[in-house]
Amino acid sequence: MKKFLWSLSIVSILGLASCGGGSSDEAKALLQKILNLVGIPQSIVVNICQDENRDGICGVTELQAEVSINKGDTVATIWNKITNTAEGRYLLETYDATLPLLLELQNTGSEHYTDKFTIPFNGLAPTEDEKDLSILQAMVDAGYLTANDISAVKEMDNREEFYEVLLKDFEINLNTLKEKELSSPRAVLANLGEMAEELKEAGIDGELPRKIDACEDDDNCIEEAMENTIIDEAEAEGIQDNETKELKRLLVGKTLYLSEPLGEKDYFNKLEFNSEGTLVTDTYLLEENSQRTYPINLEINRFTSLDTENYNIFLKVNRDYILFDAYQSAGTADGQSRLYFDKDKAEAYYSESVDSNAIATTEPASVEIEDRLKPLIAGKTYYITACDTENPHVEKLDFATNNKLTISWEEDGETKNRLFDYTTDYSTLTLFYEGNSTVVTSFSNVQEEQEKLIFEEGVFFQNQSDADNNLNELGCLGYYIDKTQRKIWEFEHAGFEMTYDESAPTIGGTVITSPYTTSGSNSNEIDAVKYCEGLKIGDYDDWDVPSLDDLQNINKDIFQDNELFWSSTKVDENKIYTINITNGIEEKSAKSEKHLIRCVRDGI
Predict the structure, then answer these.
(1) Counting CB atoms within 10 angstroms of each CB, which of 245, 484, 504, 573 has the fewest?
(2) Residues 413 and 475 reside in one and the same domain
């Protein structure tokens, strides 16, 4: 096996570009960032881009020979200027390094998979100066592994051999999932998740690197150490089932909005899916009295109209819309379709695409696309009451204008601090660990109401009861509101595993407050059912163990727990279904086993 490490630096140029012809204060600097391509040969790189519109597709189809930045260039003309120079280095020039990144690859010489595929990555946090682009880092960004999980790999003697086998197995798995009719973007995500799970079981954080290094120059030994990263038939069928469940979760019983401008015919439609996922009522909003209902089939990644046999292939979902490739019944490609969750956002996309300020639909709507959130956040101070049973206290949140957040509080006579980075995007506030691209949490549709911040979806801050502060208030970190699922979730789970068995002893006479900070002996004194029955967060004390369906449909962008959680769905009198929230794998667990619990209640 060839001994060299595929590592390539991708460097941006620091410069200035005029932004609309204003004063020098209005000019924006192009940021200098370094991306390290690790474990992937340069010869198979087709493109690297920032995914500004979050559609999972690079706007530039191939790398250019050089980059020139001119005064007067706009964000639209600069953000995707990524190119391969004569020195074999990539240049990334951007005003916003936090945008997601896409690495587009095609290994035409592969024995296993020769189609083009794209691996997604998080963007860089405001304080990050560099980032690795590797299959392992993609697993970390997707929440399947942690940075600590992969740290031992960086110290391996056989790191090059490890990455070579990892890429080969990744391509084998893509071919397997293609045969199972997964779309390429969905196959990539499923592949990352399944391989990450196998790597964790093999001990990626220590045991596996030691085992591979012990192989020395024995290639067969390394292959055997990593053999479980290849997806077998049973695992592939399980992924198929999970994809069908995910498609149904997104569509069944939902009302979505098709925004498809500038085609042969402009479409702005309301699609109402019935609760069985067998019919859809399609209302064309650009004309009155234009509606039809037709039968559909939802299977794996395919949404098929049974009357016309036209179909859509599920590509990806983001916070605003579901993206599909559309096909006519004969298999002729018919462009892409976006199904928006929110009608206003669908209209905004349509209006922007047709260069019009508004469109006339048969339903009233308003469009708001300006970043109205930034003035509510930057330079402001808010307060929350921390949910800490051992040290109840008020925390001060200082949002600096340079996208830094400092949270401070008093503890044992000392001032404590936590540092975060933050971004605002129209009406979404996202927090990052300082100097890290890992998202802590995101808040959608944030608004100010009577000197408090409120939001439709995200981690809820219970209003602070102490009004004497007479300051802007957020309140106590407590629960997560999911307006799509119409559920309210316990945000911080108990932090320890417990049995399900309803007959287990409980903590008598005590109201349990989340997060349940005491583990130790108390972890043996309470079961999942009694924990939820006794839970009180804010004004709510009617919490339940979630059903398997609830957990299957939980927002995986917020909850990335790669461990088994109890459901309330029974297998029989002795066993209960448990599920890994990150990868969706279900197990049948005895009530006496110990697993985590996250309680839920009906809401909204």
Answers:
(1) 573
(2) yes
Whether residues 203 and 65 share a domain: the answer is yes
Whether residues 512 and 391 fall in one domain: no
C-beta atoms surrounding 33 within 10 Å: 19
Q: In sequence order, which residues have a C-beta less than 8 Å from that of residue 380 and are 6 or more positions away?
A: 399, 472
* 117 strand-pairing partners: 105
Number of neighbours of residue 293 by Cβ within 10 angstroms:
13
> Is it the case that residue 441 has pLDDT exceeding 80?
no
Quote the CA–CA distance of 257 and 342 in Å, as a whole number. Answer: 7
| Same domain assignment for residues 16 and 164 | yes
With CA atoms as reference, report the closest residue to 538 among 459, 441, 447.
459
Helix (H, G, I), strand (E, B) or coil at 42: helix
Which DSSP state fits 522?
G
Q: What pLDDT score was predicted for residue 493?
A: 74
Q: Is 319 domain-assigned? A: yes
Residues 12 and 143 occupy one common structural domain? yes
User: Rounded distance, CA 436 to CA 123, Å?
Assistant: 10
**Among 553, 587, 406, residue whose Cα is nearest residue 482:** 553
| Six-digit token string for 531 | 């924990």
- Cβ pair 277, 260 in contact under 8 A: no
Q: pLDDT tens, 14-44? A: 222 222 233 333 345 667 677 788 899 888 8
424 falls within a domain: yes
Same domain as 582, residue 522: yes
In terms of domains, do 155 and 216 share one? yes
List pLDDT tens digits, range 364-412.
Answer: 333 333 456 778 788 888 776 554 545 656 777 888 888 888 888 787 7
pTM > 0.70: yes or no? no
Per residue, the 3-state secondary structure of 61-124, as one string, reads CCCECCCCCCCCCCHHHHCCEEEECCCCCEEEEECCCCCCEEEEECCCCCCCCCCCEEEEECCC
Instruction: For residue range 88-103, list pLDDT tens digits in order.
Output: 345 566 778 888 889 9
Q: Which domain holds residue 338?
A: 248-353
Check pLDDT > 50 for residue 418: yes
Q: Which two tokens stand for residue 383?
A: 């307060």
| Alpha carbon distance 492, 531 (integer Å) | 13
Domain end call among 239, 272, 306: 239
Contact 409, 393 (CB under 8 A): yes
Q: How far is CA 239 from CA 191, 198, 222, 242, in A?
A: 9, 14, 26, 5
Same domain assignment for residues 137 and 49: yes
Name the 3-class secondary structure at 286: coil
